[in-house]
Amino acid sequence: MKFKPKIQWLRQLIILSLLGVVVYGASSKEAWGTICDICPIGLLGVSVAGKVLLPQAMVLIGLEVAAVVVLGKFFCSWVCPTALFLRNNKPQVTTEQQASTAKTSLSSNVGILGAALLSTLLVGFPIFCLICPIGLVFVFIFAVYKLFSIYQPGWELIVVPVVLTLELLFFKSWCRSYCAVGAFMSIISRLFRFGPSPMIQGKTCLADQGCRVCKTNCPEQLDLHKDSSSATADCTLCLECYEKCPTKAVRIGLGKSPKTHLCNTSINDNSRRSSNE
Amino acid sequence: MRDGFLMTRRGFLRTAGLTIMMTSAGGALSFLELHKQFLRPPGALPEQDFLARCLKCQKCLAVCPTSVIMPLSLSESIRGLGTPALNYKNGFCNLCLKCIEVCPTGALKSLRPEQVSIGVARIDPANCVAWNWMGCTVCAAQCPLNAISLDDGKRPVVDAEKCNGCGICEMSCPSTSLRAYNKQSQGKGVVVTPLKSGV
């Protein structure tokens, strides 16, 4: 078997490097901090809880909005520490019903974001940060740091991994259903998305012969054959579809799929489930 | 159309459920931990405002040259888990005030070194070697502000007005080493405690 590097390894390497940079910064007295200092939910949360407008925070959030407009929810696959455990699922075939209940909508995303900010306003501190898996990963990292610098272990060394496991495995749809950071990005990418996206290149696509590889390998279960901009609003640019397509029909490009390709049927049809791959 | 604009019933229940759970959990934590005070980095806002602004980004921890800033553990605070607090086990605050410079949200407000008031040192007579036995003068000798003086019996007394809570006394107190084998006396003879300046 020829050695074939996977894009998944690159994603995990980048995320691990980011965590390494955070740890290195702390041990060498550099004020880099964790990524929580640029988190839009954190910054909005402290603005709401502290009842204050922070101009630097607003500028930062503006830049992040621009990044999502161009690169979609790339954060989820390339920066989020939980992607070390998630987004690497084995391909799975879901039924039409499962696929549709898993879809998010603009209102549900606004709802999640609103829930995080409203509860923050009511309780007076950024409560979402306490349950956010990203925040918890960093709490754990610094609890280890505390253990090794002043030899004081804390219960969070056990509790945090347990809570993370519950959130990410038990609530399998954490990312889609509860993550406020993801909701923030989804709202933006649903409304304004001008940048590279995966699309079907054309003649070599085998969807009308029953191939579903791009969809079953997509962690978001997206259907590239749908002709609507919200079809790929949740795309995290993980590049699994690009990597796994057997005929290399998927490309990452700007604009929409060429009209000449679009299959006659979208690939939600159960009766034509893929028999290969 | 499901895939577009409107929420499903399940989505609405999820949102409502999440709001209710987070609000009640957060409210309960705020109520239970309302009077907890910690040794916050210099320039910290009053505790409730500090917790409203702290992102737990650990920038202050990262930049602290004496490594006294440590994240709070679960047993110390749930609401404040991961927020920075000073721990004088192996270090003290040298008033470099770099933590204030790097804080991105203004949880630490800029001030001059002489305005710093992290906490106040308190002698613990049960653990203090001078109070409990005799002869130790380390904290009084180490204090850079001369906030600790020796009374007639050569026992240390803290002048709360002068003390800024830097922690040199606590760090250098030898009681924990001298009395490591004494079950009755396991703590430091002088401990910096948070100011009870209200919520």
Structure write-up:
The complex is a heterodimer of chains A (277) and B (199). Chain A is mostly helical and 277 residues long. Chain A has 2 domains: 7-190, no CATH class; 196-276, Alpha-Beta Plaits. In chain A, 51% of the residues lie in helices and 3% in strands. In chain A, helix 2 (40-49) packs across helix 6. The relative contact order of chain A is 0.14. Chain B has 199 residues and is an alpha+beta fold. Chain B has 2 domains: 37-111, Alpha-Beta Plaits (2-Layer Sandwich), CATH 3.30.70; 117-194, 2-Layer Sandwich (Alpha-Beta Plaits), CATH 3.30.70. Chain B contains 8 helices and 6 strands; from the N terminus they run H-H-H-E-E-H-E-H-H-E-E-H-H-E. Chain B has helices at residues 9-32, 47-53, 59-63, 98-102, 129-132, 138-142, 168-172, 175-178, and strands spanning 69-71, 84-86, 120-123, 148-150, 156-158, 190-193. In chain B, the strands form 3 sheets. A two-stranded antiparallel ribbon of chain B has the order 1-2. In chain B, a hairpin with a 5-residue loop joins strand 4 (148-150) and strand 5 (156-158). The longest helix of chain B is centred in the N-terminal third of the chain and has 24 residues, at 9-32. Chain B starts with 8 loop residues before the first helix and ends in a 6-residue tail after the last strand. The mean pLDDT of chain B is 92. At the A-B interface, helix 1, helix 2, helix 6, helix 7 and helix 8 of A face helix 1, helix 2, helix 3 and helix 4 of B.
